[in-house]
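Hi all, long-time lurker, first post. I run a small reading group and we've been trying to get comfortable going from sequence to structure in the token notation. Rather than ask abstract questions, I figured I'd post a concrete chain and ask someone more experienced to write out its structure so we can walk through it together at our next meeting. Sequence below, copied exactly:
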Amino acid sequence: MKPRTSSPVYRQAYDEILASVTQKCPTAVFQGMTVQKAARPGVEVIIGMFKDAQFGPVLMFGLGGLG
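-- Answer (accepted) --
Happy to help. Here is the structure in token form:
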């Protein structure tokens, strides 16, 4: 899958990321990427759920982002 933009900056970034993924994990199936505008400053959270065989449903909630 190739980038859908003609901007050389995006094409170069795409090629660098694809090369890095291929080098670090040659068997990876790379399906593409999305480039989006950064979100405005605020509080990021992470939410997840997992059904554990011993404990049953487990809910995870925490602060996200890089701080």
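A couple of things your group might point at:
The first strand starts at residue 45 and ends at 52.
Strands lie at 45-52, 56-63.
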